[in-house]
Amino acid sequence: MASGSWEEFFAVHLPPTDFEDNRSLLKEFCERHDQYGNKIVLVTSGGTTVPLEHNTVRFVDNFSAGTRGAASAEYFLEHGYAVIFMHRQKSLEPFTRNFTGQKLFDMLDLQDRGPNTTITVKQDSVFVLAPVLQRYQAAHAAGALLHVAFTSVSEYFWLLRAACELLARTGPRALLYLAAAVSDFYVPKDRVPTHKMQSASGPPVIQLHLVPKMLAPLVNLWVPEAYVVSFKLETDENLLIPKARAALEKYKHKMVVANMLQTRHQRVILVTPDANQEIVLSREEVHAGIDIEGVIVSDIVRAHGAHMGCGAPPSCARSPR
Amino acid sequence: MASGSWEEFFAVHLPPTDFEDNRSLLKEFCERHDQYGNKIVLVTSGGTTVPLEHNTVRFVDNFSAGTRGAASAEYFLEHGYAVIFMHRQKSLEPFTRNFTGQKLFDMLDLQDRGPNTTITVKQDSVFVLAPVLQRYQAAHAAGALLHVAFTSVSEYFWLLRAACELLARTGPRALLYLAAAVSDFYVPKDRVPTHKMQSASGPPVIQLHLVPKMLAPLVNLWVPEAYVVSFKLETDENLLIPKARAALEKYKHKMVVANMLQTRHQRVILVTPDANQEIVLSREEVHAGIDIEGVIVSDIVRAHGAHMGCGAPPSCARSPR
Fold first, then answer.
1. Which of A20, A127, B175, B301 has the most beta carbons within 10 angstroms of its beta carbon?
2. ipTM of the complex
3. Which 40-59 residues of chain B touch chain A by CB within 8 A?
4. Is residue A39 part of a domain?
5. Domain named DNA/pantothenate metabolism flavoprotein C-terminal: which ranges (chains A, B) (predicted)?
6. Looking at residue B273, which CATH number applies to its domain?
7. In sequence order, what are the residues at sequence separation of 6 or more whose Cβ sits closer than 8 angstroms to the Cβ of residue A75?
8. Of the ranges A72-81, A261-270, B53-62, B250-259, which one carries the lowest mean pLDDT score?
């Protein structure tokens, strides 16, 4: 079954209720950083849901804790980017990603002195927490990090398009790092039942439909000058590179980060029109807690620099002489 | 289509890899508290997933942040119960539920003094955090709270049965508070594809099957003397009480906590064989941040006390003369 067009998708699915608020935040952020001539990266992160009921009790979800996106956002900040972190509600976030509520509670010492009670971080936890907290506070003080959250696939698309339209004026200084695990399938709004599906009426059959490929209008219409990186996650190694390369050829964007579900924290392949560049962490690096995202982001920042160096079209497409 | 039997479910779905570790933790916890004559409550919390692929990229999920279960666990601790908190991985947990990583980060002050760096909680946050931290530390120091986590519906059932079998010896002092949002439907193991579903082969149709009703063996075989409370969440008010009452009649357990998705934080109905008892928070109580779970748990603790007061069978079933 063919997927509907992207125009149709936006016509059928209304914007989320908090859409205008988020759009205002995005607008202020993009305009401020564009004015300073900053590079701006849009990092998308986490999985999208596909509601199976209007009063949503059940939904189809995509596996993603948001590790890749949250870690990458930190490294982009280190490289001086302004970061729009567009993430699944409750997925991992930059800086706090390694500190759950319980982990932080266990780091705290309570000195109960009535009205003069104090709470301090235990000395042996300070050296772990301090550098992360410092970077967190610096990013927020500089206004360099904006969080916007989505849950369903339609919320994601509305936010994505809005961010792109605002980033268009940033031209080649905009970078899109589309790490979110976006559903390929959905249930069109008019096929979704209003109430919770009842088990008494027998087990339901869910007919999924293809989600339109938003990368096509994104690359061609919304942010034509940006450096666009998409992600490809597979579980079958044989499909990985062919599918990454097919996506590049189809959408004409700049790079696909290809990775296998099972090894995604140790190995990725940066697929560009000219090359497949493999990044692999050694066992020692993995044990030392090195994030592969640090390496991925460094390489992409370099490629983005070259893209910007090409300047405004049409100088770039020419030979260097 | 009829659901398979619960025996069949356990025969087809192997135990999760960390099952024996969790079983050992449960065993130590139950035996220790049983020995002291403590009341033990099993609180289940959060939604279960139904994997759609063996290398799970996609799954069907049930809406549940775990608010109800996490809050209730705190109140059971206040009432002197030992609490097994069996929860969906990454769902809300007792005490930390109101403090995400980011919220805690924003409460922290960093005094950067090189090797003598300290991190303290800001004075205006201490009064919010201190009472919660105090109760958290007390519960852990007393060994009164055990966390065990599940993700898929089959992990949930394996843990549930193991906990029940261990709680059986606690007799009527055991309380089951089954607040988890367990899937009614699943895809049997032999129908699940190995690799990620490919959109190129067209949108998939997902044929769901009914999950066997575990409440039947739970009440009759696994913990016949325990006080068992189940939950019913609906989106259609007309179905709420009839379905709660039908469940009580079918499974012969003690209580159904019935609630509507839209109003579940302000209103529930405790449905017992004899009565429907409505609990409603006033608007002022909701604004003051009162947890409805405090009221629910108080009422259930009272009912559980009466159940225990009946003593070991057969004294209870007789008239008070």
1. B175
2. 0.86
3. 49, 52-53, 55-59
4. yes
5. 39-93, 176-266
6. 3.40.50.10300
7. A291, A293, A294, A297, A298
8. B53-62
Helix (H, G, I), strand (E, B) or coil at B238: helix
Check CB contact of A130 with chain B, cutoff 8 Å. yes
Closest by Cβ to B57, choosing from A52, A105, A233: A233
* Facing residue for B196 by CB, picked from A56, A126, A235: A235
Chain B residues whose beta carbon lies within 8 Å of the beta carbon of residue A118: 120-121, 123, 126
Residues 6+ apart with CB under 8 A from B321: none
From CA B100, how far away is CA B98, in angstroms rounded?
6
Task: Tell the residue number behind the tokens 């705290």, with chain if given.
Answer: A108
Give every strand in the sheet of A276-280, ordered side by side: A145-150, A82-88, A40-45, A174-178, A227-234, A255-260, A267-271, A276-280
Q: How far apart are CA A282 and CA B262, in angstroms?
A: 50
Pairs of residues, one from chain A and one from chain B, whose beta carbons lie less than 8 Å apart = 194
Residue type, A63: F
Asked whether the beta carbons of A42 and A50 are under 8 A apart, the reply is no
Pairing relation of β-strands B267-271 and B276-280? antiparallel
- pLDDT band at A312, cuts 50/70/90? very low
The crossing angle, in degrees rounded to 10, of helices A67-78 and A123-141 is 70
Residue B246: give the domain boundaries: 6-94+134-317
A28-A33-A34-A36 Cα dihedral, nearest 10 degrees: 130
- Determine the length of chain A: 321
In this complex, is the C-beta atom of A138 within 8 Å of any C-beta atom belonging to chain B? no
Specify which residues B49 forms β-bridges with.
B61, B152
Count how many domains chain A has: 1
Cβ <8 Å between B104 and A104: yes
CA closest to A93 among chain B residues: B102
CB-side exposure of B308: number of CA atoms within 13 Å?
16
What 3-state class would DSSP assign to A278?
Answer: strand
Asked if B208 and A209 come within 8 Å (Cβ–Cβ), the reply is no
Tell me if B102 is assigned to some domain.
no
Give the mean model confidence (pLDDT) for residues A20-39.
98
What pLDDT shows up at residue B194? 73
Domain-located, residue A228: yes
Which segments of A122-203 are extended strands (E)? 145-150, 174-178, 185-186
Residue B299: inside a domain, yes or no? yes
For residue B201, pLDDT over 90 is answered with no
Closest-CA residue to A239 (of A217, A261, A265): A261
Provide the pairing of β-strand B58-62 with B49-51.
Answer: antiparallel
In contact, B133 and A110? CB cutoff 8 Å: yes
**Neighbour order of strands in the sheet with A58-62:** A49-51, A58-62, B58-62, B49-51
| Sign of the CA dihedral running B242, B245, B249, B250 | positive
Q: Report how far residue B253's alpha carbon sits from residue B256's, in angstroms, rounded to the nearest whole number.
A: 8
* Residue B61 in contact with partner chain A when CB distance is under 8 A: yes
For residue range A82-137, list pLDDT tens digits in order.
999 999 999 999 999 999 888 999 999 999 998 899 999 999 999 999 999 999 99
Within chain B, how many helices (H) and strands (E) appear? 10, 15
List the single residue in B110, B133, B202 with the smallest CB-CB distance to A108.
B133
Residue in this structure with the two tokens 């049983």, named with its chain if needed = B34
Cα A307 from Cα A316, distance rounded (Å): 8
